[in-house]
């Protein structure tokens, strides 16, 4: 739900964004706005442009055409320190968690504060008491305080993604980007991780832009769904009252071939939505 106190505070704006990689058009005239506190899921088949869109918001890609504003800054015009400053306000979590397997859970979380360190980096000693207390607090928030001194690679996938969320929280981000954060997890862990992202976002007024394949998870945990197909926005709608059948229908209407429709059905019909989420 959008924060009721700041209903018109737009934190992400993409205006007619096109991105070409050689002959491939990954994004084609994409325009979306995301309000502060909104939880928006990007839904789409493999190759529809979800990751490319997220990478533009974080300044990791530059658009071929169009403009992107994040927290009031024109991302495409930024480099060096101003870009780093903006990116420090944007947390990013990934499908493969991107933890350092041989480090402890606590050290992995602390790496979220790396950009703020001055002087030599000497493992745990470098971070100082305030950072360590903050990291332990974030681990407590994601339910892993008792695992702080365990090696990261001894945790389950769902636990590792929760560590990655705690690491992102070390940045005190205003925006959390998540690129298929549950694609490597079983259905139960996927649901738990999405629930945690939603709870934390609501607690902190975080804005979330998250790519997913699974329509059932999107309907359960997002405020709004933006559907991409071949780099174009084909659906942009609040989830309240939306059913899986309606999402399917919208995708079905834009499928141009039978095999494309079958691929959409195969992806979107995975899992089931509890009645309470409809
Ligand atoms: N760096 C790149 N160089 C060339 N082509 C790219 C690059 N990044 C993305 N693409 C292409 O752009 C299109 C969109 O890719 P993108 O990764 O954004 O899709 P996606 O929806 O995130 O897919 P998936 O769900 O499989 O992660 C694809 O055709 C992809 O091959």
TrEMBL record:
Keyword Ribonucleoprotein in record: no
Keywords: ATP-binding, Cell membrane, Membrane, Nucleotide-binding, Translocase, Transport
Gene3D superfamilies in alphabetical order: P-loop containing nucleotide triphosphate hydrolases
Keyword set includes Transferase: no
Origin: domain of life: Bacteria
GO cellular component, one term: membrane
A GO molecular-function annotation: ATP binding
Domain ABC transporter: start-end pairs: 12-255
Pfam family name, one: ABC_tran
Stored SUPFAM superfamilies: P-loop containing nucleoside triphosphate hydrolases
PANTHER family assigned: AMINO ACID IMPORT ATP-BINDING PROTEIN, PHOSPHONATES IMPORT ATP-BINDING PROTEIN PHNC
Protein name from the UniProt record: Phosphonate transport system ATP-binding protein
Lineage start: Bacteria, Bacillati, Actinomycetota, Actinomycetes, Micrococcales
């Amino acid at each position: 739900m959008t924060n009721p106190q700041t209903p018109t505070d737009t934190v992400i704006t993409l205006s007619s964004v096109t991105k070409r990689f050689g002959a491939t058009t990954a994004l084609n005239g994409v325009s979306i706005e995301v309000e502060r506190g909104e939880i928006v899921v990007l839904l789409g088949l493999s190759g529809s442009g979800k990751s490319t869109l997220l990478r533009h918001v974080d300044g990791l890609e530059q658009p071929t055409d169009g403009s992107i504003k994040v927290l009031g800054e024109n991302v495409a015009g930024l480099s060096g320190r101003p870009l780093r400053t903006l990116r420090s306000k944007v947390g990013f979590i990934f499908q493969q968690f991107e933890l350092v397997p041989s480090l402890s859970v606590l050290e992995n979380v602390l790496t979220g504060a790396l950009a703020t360190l001055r002087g030599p980096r000497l493992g745990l000693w470098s971070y100082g008491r305030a950072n360590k207390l903050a990291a332990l607090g974030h681990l407590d928030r994601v339910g892993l305080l008792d695992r702080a001194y365990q090696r990261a690679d001894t945790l389950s996938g769902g636990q590792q993604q929760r560590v990655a969320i705690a690491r992102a929280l070390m940045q005190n981000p205003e925006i959390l980007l998540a690129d298929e954060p549950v694609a490597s997890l079983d259905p139960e862990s996927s649901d738990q991780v999405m629930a945690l992202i939603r709870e934390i976002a609501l607690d902190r007024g975080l804005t979330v832009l998250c790519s997913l394949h699974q329509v059932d998870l999107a309907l359960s945990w997002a405020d709004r769904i933006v559907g991409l197909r071949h780099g174009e926005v084909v659906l942009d709608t609040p989830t309240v009252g939306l059913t899986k059948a309606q999402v399917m229908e919208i995708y079905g209407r834009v499928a141009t071939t039978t095999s494309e429709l079958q691929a959409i059905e195969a992806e979107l019909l995975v899992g089931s939505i509890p009645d309470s989420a409809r």
